[in-house]
Amino acid sequence: MTAVATADRPRLGERLAAAPWPELAAPAALLLLVVVFGAADSTFLTTGNIEAILQASAILVVLAVAQTFVVATAGIDLSVASTMTLGAVVLGQVYSSGAGIGWAILAGVAAATAVGLVNGAIVAKGGITDFIVTLGTLSAASGLALILADGKPQPVLSKFMLDLSASGIGIISWSVLVAAVVAVTAHVVLFRTRLGVHLLAVGGSTDAARSTGVRNVRVKMSVYLISGLLAGLAAVLLVARVGAAEPASNTSFLLNSVAAVVLGGVSLFGGRATIIGPVVGALLLASLVNGLTLLGVSQFYQPLAVGIVVVLAAFLTRFQK
Amino acid sequence: MTAVPMLELRGVDKSFGPVHVLSSVDFTARAGEVTALVGDNGAGKTTLVKCIGGIHPVDAGELIFQGTARSVRGPRDAALLGVEIVYQDLALADNLDIVENMFLGREVLTRLRTLDENSMEKLAEQALASLSVRTVRSVRQHVVSLSGGQRQTVAIAKSVLWKSKVVILDEPTAALGVAQTEQVLDLVRRLAGQGVAVILVSHNMNDVMKVADSIGVLFLGRMAAQVRRKDVTQTQVVELITAGRSGELGLSPAESSGAAV
Per residue in A189-205, pLDDT tens? Predict the structure, then answer.
């Protein structure tokens, strides 16, 4: 009986290993950053600055959620930022052609969703490695954006778009609210629907999922479709924030979306994901950049800081089972 | 013993190209009984199981479910007829919990199309309770944290949950220790006690002699004999496995040597 008793009480080492380190990393780091930056600079915790951080993280939150869906199935969507750029450019072109802002938004979101559909079809049906496929669409989508826009930014002067980023409820702007709604919806889809269970099953145990009757191909296609759709939504927020549709490549958004996912404790091998994790990861990255800027650190140091934080977070996933 | 068997195979042939894997195999599994399927490596056990499961459609012969001949052209046909195969690798998703695994692909939904967690939890608990399973602490445990015996338990409980009529267990005790083997064999008996026709594919003579009511012995793709457990000794079964015949039982001398050619 003593053997059973000791077996039931894990040793300290086992308990440390069993603690959800990857999930705790981002909230802990965010708290640390808030304390450090708050102490170092009195403006960091003012409502104005918090508003700015939230505003700056809205787009990244949406992209990180998009990336989470794909990563949960053990895939990766490298095209997510270029898809957003393409969506933004289509939005700008349709708007400048004289259509209403509603049609322009619809066209932009549809274009991005179409890219997601193409990704999904090639990855799931064609059985080609996600890394290569989305690397291809990364290039294709940004190329298409440059062609459509002829390389020039297109101003989008619309009251609706201005309001989206400039007004809202208190310090919560409408775009932050959009990001919050996306996150909550994504959480419900991941944990309260059949698709959510199936995509975690496909990500974590492909063979078991297939032999149980889960339609792997359909699940894989859906996640890329979701990723494209969310990239389209992010495009709307981007145009609202910048006030123009720029065909510039947004590579930092791609890297940060993956970084937020890793910071959020989502396993890159699939099958293990949360939504709150990547959202906190995105907030963490936005706070880091904001705090460094406040402290007067040259912006050249920011990618370096982001890189170090991401690698540290990835290191923590070593404790993952 | 009911008059009509749950599952009956008559004259089943299966070839892969020029290789005859099964020739004219007859096999019967009755509701409420454990029917063991034994044979040496390469005797055709796995192929026979896959024929029943619809993974390999048969070339010739009949599959008769509860007295009616049915064509089984794919795994879905077999599933519709209530055939569940529990493979050695169990086909469980490690990263999901017990409830999610038991309902994977067949989730219960609420009116809002979200998962009905409460109902699923209750049904999973009932299925485990009906097999008197006490080794599983919580149905919300992730499968990765379960022992081999517990995993086997979950896989078997799944077939109870889905009211399977024929449950085929492929070497369920192969990777288990003594105590866990005992538990799983108990479970196999209780499963049959619920009126299921259980087919136990096994290499382990002790297991077979302990739980089987009937034993089918395959020898080089032929059914050497299907005998009642109480009518034979372990030695006779071993002879059937290795030589295809044992005294009066089994293939004729010509058949048992001819089959090897």
Answer: 999 999 999 999 999 98
Question: Which of B84, B89, B96 to probe the A interface (max A CBs under 10 A)?
Answer: B96
* H-only helix segments in B70-177: 75-80, 98-102, 117-130, 148-161
CB B84 within 8 A of CB B54: no
The token pair at A268 is: 């890159």
The CATH class, in words, for A21-33+46-317 is mainly alpha
Q: For domain B7-82+164-258, say whether CATH 3.10.20.310 is its number.
A: no
State how far the Cα of B48 lies from the Cα of A260, in Å rounded to an integer: 50
**Domain positions in chain B:** 7-82+164-258, 93-158
Interface of B with A (CB under 8 A): 79, 87, 89-96, 100, 104-107, 109, 113-115, 144
Cβ separation of B100 and A197 shorter than 8 Å? yes
pLDDT (tens digit, 9 = 90+) per residue, B102-157?
Answer: 999 889 999 989 999 999 999 999 999 888 888 888 899 999 988 888 888 898 89
Q: For testing the chain B interface, which of A211, A214, A215, A269 should be mutated: the one with the most B CBs within 10 Å?
A: A211
The domain segmentation of chain A, as residue ranges, is: 21-33+46-317
